Amino acid sequence: MNAVLIVDKPQGFTSHDVVHRVRKILGERSVGHLGTLDPPATGVLPLVTGSLTRLAQFYLHSEKSYEGIIRFGFATDTYDGDGEPVGTARPVEFGIDELRRQADRFVGSIQQLPPPFSAKKVDGTRAYKLARKKQPVALEPVTVEIKEFEIASLEGHHAAFRARVASGTYMRSIAHDLGMQIGCGAHLASLRRTAVAEFGIADAHTLEEIEIASRKGSVEDLFVHPRRLMPQFPSVVATDETAAMIVHGRAVNLPEMSRAPLVKVFYGQKSLIAMATRIAGTLFHARIVFLEPSAREVAVRGR
Fold it and tell me: Which of 8, 38, 80, 203 is catalytic?
């Protein structure tokens, strides 16, 4: 089963929990995700199954969008609501205009220190394992890009926000650092991911919806249409002869793709059979082959 399925991850589940659940629902062992989402967070978690797990390499640096709530007044050791309070609680003595001015300073390319409770490694050990043991966590700041960070509202100690960030950005760190900058401490109270790359919340399905569809035999109706995948790359439809050559690892001539360095190769309208790299002129060679049943049949006919 080669498919892309967008899950609306429930709160309290790890990304691996979701993968495990979907494996059981679909009866498919080969299932992976395109970007971890912390257990307290909800929202868009793209899953890839079968041979399409090989698409993960093209989503390593995907842009992500979020909405959530920042709680001002005190920081926590995890930078979110699951952690222990750090320091003394302080009153919130600023208005929304001041908060927006402070938030604007985060937009752009900035240096960000990952949370101590994160999967970053310190001398080969995950940072969160050291933090749980109350051991020092010496992480280095990394460069991240925050494309949008908008404070939508401020009610008492809670501010609602929307953000669009490059891969590798920790929203928990943004909340923590904003609290430090404005002088009263803060942490991320809730987070919902609304988009990953081309996948939005409108594409997402709950685990319950997926399970019901699977029992009815209609789960394929929930899959993302292959033509929507990776819109940054052009696509070409292969003939029987071209498809057979591609799945056997032979170079093919794609004159209509003379300027594209990497293309999606389809057989028919729905079968993504390969990602092909231009090697010279209009000559392309398969970088990855996705062996759909239809492609196997083509390969046999092409012998």
Answer: 38
